[in-house]
Amino acid sequence: MRPAISGWVAAGFPAGASELTSCTFQFDAVAETAHGTISSGENLKGQIKFTLTRSDEEGQSRDYPAKGEIIVTRPGGGELSGKIRFVRVTRSPAVADSLLIDARDVSGNLGQVKNYFDPMLFAVYGKRGMLSNFDLPRGSDGWNAFNMKRVFQYHSPGSDNPVLHQIGPLKGGCT
């Protein structure tokens, strides 16, 4: 089991900053879907830690390639992790603005299930037009303002449907 990553809130950053940007968050998730020995409605703990490496803008979204990890644990034992590839900021005039974290190389033993396949996704959605630029929010208040839908998902063999978890408030921030 990995040690817990402590959450923190710090000053924000402009998207074009030449220095590396790092973010750390903790979150609670409620299982929406049963998975192995995990029952629907069961509580899990999660943590996210990443550093952005650059940004690539395309239309209504900007991808920030990143290095880091998403970890979800089951109190009492079990863990699943994935390596973060990018963070995507989407500004959509038609549907919803969103922040998405994409992780690959998913592995672990969660709910006595040991086989997983990519991707692992963490996504929060807010009202359309709430973003005026592609900057990531500075602190947990900015991330928590995305409250239309908040979901964490991963995939396991034997199902075409992702295993879904509803996300509670985030604690942490970016520097």
Structure report:
Strand 3 and strand 4 form a beta hairpin. It is globular and about 45 Å long. With 175 residues, it is mainly beta. 3% of the residues lie in helices and 51% in strands. Mean pLDDT is 85; it is low at 1-18. It has one domain (21-174). The chain has an eight-stranded antiparallel β-barrel with strand order 1-2-4-5-6-7-8-9. It has one helix at 140-144; strands at 21-31, 43-52, 56-58, 61-73, 79-90, 96-109, 117-127, 149-155, 163-167, 171-174. It contains one helix and ten strands, in the order E-E-E-E-E-E-E-H-E-E-E.
Give me some keywords for this one.
globular; 175 residues; single chain
Give the structure's gist in a few sentences.
The protein is an all-beta fold and 175 residues long. It is 3% helix and 51% strand.
Task: Determine the strand fraction and express it as a percent band.
Answer: over 45%
Specify the biggest β-sheet. Answer: 8 strands, antiparallel, barrel
What Rg is obtained from the alpha carbons, in whole angstroms?
Answer: 16 Å
Count of structural domains: 1
In sequence order, what are the helices and strands, one letter per element? EEEEEEEHEEE
On the 0-100 scale, what is the average pLDDT? Answer: 85
The number of E-state strands comes to 10
Spans with pLDDT under 50 lasting ≥5 residues?
1-18
Helix content: under 10%
Number of separate helices: 1
**What sort of overall outline do the alpha carbons produce when their principal axes are compared?**
globular
Give the strand line-up of the largest sheet.
1-2-4-5-6-7-8-9
**What structural class do helix, strand and pairing data support?**
mainly beta
- How far apart, in Å, are the first and last alpha carbons? 26 Å
